[in-house]
C-alpha cells in the first residue's frame, strides 16, 4: 500500500514541506530554464492583455510547450498530476474537471460545467470537449478560483486557458514520433508556411493510438485504449503591428475504448482484467471555426473581436453491471452546437490608470438522446422491473441557452507601489427546455412526457476588487474579493414520476472568493516563490450525484441533480522554483485544500430508515494534500549533443467519489485511498536546443497500483472500481526546423 499523505505525522509533514520550499520546484510551473540573469519571464493574458505573470494578482500555474513535453503531456488531462489544484476526477470521457476541490461535468443537456475551458479565447461549452489534444500548443494556463469579471461563462471554479502557436513570417515546424508499451503510437506534426510579408498559413495534426491496459477476458479484447485524430489549420493576416487577423478551423475524431467501471477484483487476481458481454466505449466528433481580430487604434487602444462556431457529438456506451450476464446497457448520445461573440477594448497603460471593457454573447443548443437496453438478467427481479427484460427505454432532451454579458476591469495606481483593481460583469441568461420526451414501454420507470417545455431567465452581477502592493522590484503582495456564478438549468434526467413532481429546475450557484498572496523572486532571480491563501464560499451548490430508488421492492441507483446546500473550499497554494546552477532547475508545487459540504441535507443517503446529512463531508475528488516535485538537468555531453534528464514525483492524499462515503453501508464503495506516482525522462538533443532530440520516458515509474474511480453498480449495488494506468514507457523522436 502507498503511504498516505494525510496519515503523516505533523512533524514529518512539516519537514517534507520545508524541503519543498527550500530545495525544489518544476519547470511546469515557471520558466523552462534559467539564464545567467535569472529565470525567464512568463507572459500570460489572464487579464486580457499580455503581462508578466509575476505582476498579475491572480493565482496562476503556467505550462509552456517545453514544460508539457518534459512531462509527456499529449492531452490536456495529462497535466493533472503536475498541477496540484487541478483535478480531472476519474479521467473519463465525460470530462470531470475541477479546481480547488470544486469538480463536476456537464453530462446532461441542462447542466453546465464549473471550469471554463478556453482555446485561443474561445469557450468550449461541454465538459466532454475538455480533454483537448495538445496540438501546436504555446502555453497552458490554469487560473484558480472564480474569474467572473473577464471570462464569458460559468467560471466559478476557475479557467483553463490554452494558447496555440500562431502562424509567423518564417518557415518553421516540427515532427514527432512516439512509441511505447500498450501498443502506443503517436505521430504529430506542425508546419508554418509564410505566404507573403502579410500572410502565413499553419497546419498541425496528430494521430494517437493505444490498445489500453485493461483486458476483457470474455471477449478477449483490450480496453482503456485510445484512437484519436486531431487537426488544426490557421490562416493569419498580419501586415503590421496594428492589424492581426487569425482564422482557425479544427477537428477532432476520437473512438476510444473507455471503461465506465469494473467489478472490484477478488484478492490475488489480475486487477486489470474483467469479464463483460459489452465493451464500454466512447466516440467523439467535434470541431469549429473561429475568427480573431486585433486592431491597434489611435491613442494606444487595442480592439479585439472573437467570433466562433463549434459543433460536436459524443456517444458513450457502457454495461452498468460489468459482468457477463446482460442486465443494463446504457448509451448517452449528446449533440451540441454553439456560437459565441466577444468584443473588447483595452486601454494603454497610462501612468495611473488602465482598463479593459467588453461585450459577450453566447448561444448554445444541447440535445441528449439516452437509451437503456434491459437485458435478460433483470428478468429475475420482482415486478415491475423484471418485466423490462428485452425492452428498451429512451428519452430526448433539448435545451437552449442565450447568454449576454457586459464587463469592465480597471487598475488604478495610487502610488508607485500601491495599485487598486476592480471590475464587474453583468450576465443575463435565458434557458429553454425546448423538448423533453420519454419512451417507456411499461410506464413504470419514466413518466410519459411528449414535448414537455419550460424556460426561465436570470441575471447576475459578479464584481471583483483588490489591492496590490509592490514592495520592491521582485516582491508583490495582493489581496482580493470577488464573486462568480454558475448557471441554473434543468435536470432533464429526472423523468420518474417522483422526480418530475419535485421539479426539473435548479437554481444558479454562486461563490464569494477571498484571496491573499505574494509573488516573489530572489537570489538574483534564480528563485521564484508564489503563495496564495484562498477561502471560497458556495451557495446553492449544484450536485450531480446518485440516489437510491425503490422499484417493486428493489433498490437501484439513479442520477440526481439539485441545489444541495453550501460548500466551503479553503487552503493554500504554493509554487517554488530554484535554478541553483546552470542547467539545473528544481521545482515544487503544493496545495493544501479543505473542500467540504457545510450543508447537504440527506447527502449521506439512507441508513437504518433515516436520511444522513453530509454536512462536513469532503467534496468529490478533493484531496486535502496534493504536491508535485521535480528536478530537470541539461548539459553539453558531446560536441554534437546535449544530454537532459527529468524526474518528477507526485503525491495526493485520500479522497472520495460521493458524499455517501459518510454512510456506514457504502463507505468503502466511495473511498479512494492516497497514492503517489513518479515519472522520468532522459534524452539527447542537438546542442543549444537544436533541430533533433530523442528521449526515453516512463510514467508511473514504480508501477504503483492506484484507484481512479469507485462506485456501486446501478442495479445489483456491487462494488465497482477503475484502476489508473500501470507503468508505461516509451521513446520520443522529435525534429524541428
Please provide a written account of the structure.
The chain has 737 residues and is mainly β. The chain is 4% helix and 58% strand. The protein is built from 3 helices and 47 strands. The strands form 10 sheets. It has a 23-stranded antiparallel β-sheet that branches. A 5-stranded mixed β-sheet has the order 5-11-12-9-10. The protein has a 3-stranded antiparallel β-sheet with strand order 6-7-8, with no helix packed on it. Strand 29 and strand 30 (475-486) form a beta hairpin.
Helix share bin: under 10%
* Proportion of beta-strand residues: over 45%
Major beta sheet summary:
23 strands, antiparallel
Number of helices: 3
Span of the ends, CA to CA = 47 Å
Global outline: globular
The tally of strands reads 47
User: What is the CA-atom radius of gyration, in angstroms?
Assistant: 25 Å
Which blocks of ≥5 consecutive residues have pLDDT under 50? 1-36
Structural class: mainly beta
Mean pLDDT: 90
Write a compact overview of the structure shown.
This protein has 737 residues and is mainly beta.
Keywords:
5-stranded mixed beta sheet; 737 residues; mainly beta; single chain
SSE topology:
Blueprint: H1 10-23, E1 34-35, E2 38-39, E3 43-44, E4 51-52, E5 60-64, H2 65-70, E6 86-87, E7 97-99, E8 102-104, E9 115-119, E10 122-124, E11 137-144, E12 158-164, E13 172-180, E14 184-194, E15 199-210, E16 214-216, E17 221-223, E18 226-240, E19 243-256, E20 262-263, E21 273-274, E22 281-296, E23 302-319, E24 328-346, E25 353-368, E26 371-374, E27 392-413, E28 418-439, E29 452-472, E30 475-486, E31 489-490, H3 497-502, E32 505-506, E33 509-522, E34 527-551, E35 554-578, E36 584-599, E37 605-607, E38 610-612, E39 625-638, E40 641-652, E41 655-656, E42 671-672, E43 675-685, E44 692-699, E45 707-712, E46 719-723, E47 728-736
Parallel strand pairs: 9-12, 16-21
Antiparallel strand pairs: 1-2, 3-4, 5-11, 6-7, 7-8, 9-10, 11-12, 13-14, 13-47, 14-15, 15-18, 16-17, 18-19, 19-22, 20-46, 22-23, 23-24, 24-25, 24-26, 25-27, 26-27, 27-28, 28-29, 29-30, 30-33, 31-32, 33-34, 34-35, 35-36, 36-39, 37-38, 39-40, 40-43, 41-42, 43-44, 44-47, 45-46
Amino acid at each position: 500500500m502507498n503511504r498516505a499523505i494525510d496519515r503523516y505525522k505533523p512533524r514529518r509533514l512539516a519537514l517534507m514541506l520545508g524541503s519543498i520550499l527550500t530545495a525544489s520546484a518544476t519547470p511546469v510551473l515557471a520558466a523552462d530554464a534559467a539564464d545567467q540573469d535569472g529565470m525567464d519571464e512568463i507572459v500570460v493574458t489572464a487579464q486580457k492583455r499580455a503581462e508578466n505573470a509575476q505582476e498579475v494578482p491572480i493565482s496562476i500555474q503556467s505550462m509552456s510547450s517545453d514544460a508539457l513535453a518534459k512531462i509527456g503531456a499529449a492531452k490536456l488531462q495529462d497535466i493533472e498530476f503536475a498541477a496540484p489544484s487541478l483535478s480531472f476526477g476519474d479521467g473519463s470521457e465525460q470530462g470531470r474537471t475541477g479546481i480547488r476541490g470544486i469538480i463536476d461535468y456537464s453530462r446532461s443537456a441542462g447542466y453546465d460545467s464549473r471550469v471554463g475551458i478556453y482555446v485561443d479565447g474561445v469557450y468550449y461549452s461541454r465538459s466532454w470537449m475538455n480533454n483537448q489534444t495538445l496540438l501546436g500548443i504555446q502555453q497552458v494556463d490554469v487560473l484558480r478560483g472564480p474569474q467572473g469579471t473577464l471570462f464569458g461563462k460559468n467560471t466559478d471554479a476557475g479557467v483553463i486557458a490554452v494558447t496555440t502557436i500562431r502562424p509567423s513570417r518564417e518557415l518553421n515546424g516540427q515532427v514527432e514520433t512516439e512509441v511505447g508499451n500498450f501498443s502506443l503510437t503517436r505521430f504529430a506534426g506542425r508546419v508554418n508556411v509564410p505566404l507573403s510579408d502579410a500572410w502565413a498559413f499553419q497546419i498541425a495534426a496528430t494521430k494517437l493510438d493505444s490498445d489500453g491496459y485493461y483486458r476483457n477476458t470474455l471477449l478477449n479484447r483490450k480496453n482503456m485504449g485510445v484512437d484519436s485524430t486531431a487537426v488544426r489549420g490557421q490562416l493569419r493576416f498580419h501586415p503590421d503591428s496594428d492589424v492581426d487577423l487569425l482564422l482557425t478551423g479544427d477537428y477532432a475524431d476520437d473512438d476510444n475504448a473507455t471503461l465506465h467501471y469494473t467489478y472490484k477484483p477478488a484478492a490475488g487476481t489480475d486487477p486489470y482484467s474483467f469479464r463483460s458481454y459489452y465493451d464500454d466505449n466512447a466516440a467523439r466528433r467535434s470541431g469549429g471555426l473561429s475568427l480573431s481580430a486585433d486592431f491597434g487604434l489611435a491613442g494606444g487602444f487595442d480592439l479585439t473581436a472573437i467570433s466562433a462556431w463549434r459543433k460536436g457529438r459524443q456517444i458513450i456506451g457502457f454495461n452498468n453491471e460489468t459482468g457477463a450476464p446482460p442486465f443494463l446497457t446504457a448509451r448517452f448520445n449528446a449533440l451540441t452546437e454553439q456560437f459565441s461573440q466577444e468584443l473588447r477594448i483595452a486601454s494603454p497603460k497610462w501612468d495611473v490608470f488602465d482598463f479593459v471593457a467588453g461585450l459577450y454573447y453566447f448561444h448554445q443548443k444541447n440535445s441528449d438522446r439516452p437509451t437503456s437496453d434491459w437485458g435478460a438478467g433483470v428478468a429475475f427481479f420482482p415486478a415491475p422491473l423484471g418485466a423490462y427484460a428485452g425492452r428498451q427505454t429512451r428519452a430526448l432532451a433539448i435545451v437552449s441557452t442565450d447568454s449576454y454579458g457586459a464587463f469592465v476591469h480597471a487598475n488604478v495606481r495610487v502610488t508607485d507601489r500601491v495599485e487598486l483593481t476592480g471590475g464587474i460583469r453583468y450576465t443575463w441568461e435565458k434557458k429553454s427546455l425546448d423538448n423533453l420526451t420519454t419512451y417507456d414501454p411499461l410506464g413504470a420507470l419514466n413518466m410519459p412526457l411528449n414535448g414537455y417545455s419550460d424556460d426561465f431567465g436570470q441575471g447576475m452581477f459578479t464584481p471583483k476588487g483588490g489591492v496590490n502592493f509592490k514592495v520592491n522590484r521582485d516582491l508583490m503582495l495582493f489581496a482580493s474579493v470577488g464573486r462568480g456564478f454558475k448557471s441554473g438549468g434543468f435536470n432533464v434526467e429526472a423523468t420518474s414520476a417522483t422526480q418530475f413532481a419535485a421539479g426539473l429546475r435548479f437554481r444558479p450557484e454562486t461563490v464569494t472568493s477571498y484571496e491573499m498572496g505574494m509573488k516573489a523572486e530572489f537570489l538574483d532571480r534564480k528563485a521564484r516563490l508564489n503563495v496564495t491563501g484562498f477561502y471560497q464560499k458556495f451557495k446553492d451548490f449544484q450536485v450531480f450525484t446518485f440516489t437510491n430508488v425503490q422499484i417493486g421492492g428493489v433498490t437501484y441507483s439513479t442520477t440526481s441533480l439539485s441545489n444541495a446546500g453550501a460548500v466551503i473550499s479553503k487552503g493554500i497554494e504554493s509554487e517554488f522554483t530554484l535554478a541553483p546552477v546552470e542547467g539545473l532547475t528544481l521545482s515544487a508545487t503544493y496545495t493544501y485544500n479543505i473542500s467540504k459540504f457545510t450543508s447537504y441535507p440527506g447527502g449521506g443517503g439512507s441508513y437504518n430508515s433515516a436520511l444522513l446529512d453530509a454536512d462536513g463531508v469532503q467534496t468529490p475528488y478533493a484531496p486535502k494534500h496534493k504536491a508535485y516535485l521535480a528536478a530537470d538537468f541539461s548539459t553539453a555531453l558531446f560536441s554534437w549533443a546535449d544530454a537532459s534528464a527529468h524526474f518528477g514525483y507526485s503525491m495526493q492524499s485520500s479522497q472520495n467519489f460521493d458524499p455517501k462515503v459518510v454512510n456506514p453501508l457504502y463507505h468503502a464503495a466511495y473511498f479512494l485511498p492516497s497514492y503517489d506516482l513518479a515519472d522520468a525522462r532522459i534524452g539527447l538533443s542537438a546542442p543549444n536546443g537544436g533541430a533533433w532530440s530523442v528521449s526515453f520516458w516512463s510514467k508511473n515509474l514504480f508501477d504503483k497500483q492506484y484507484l481512479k474511480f469507485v462506485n456501486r453498480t446501478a442495479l445489483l449495488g456491487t462494488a465497482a472500481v477503475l484502476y489508473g494506468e500501470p507503468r508505461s514507457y516509451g521513446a520520443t523522436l522529435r525534429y524541428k526546423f
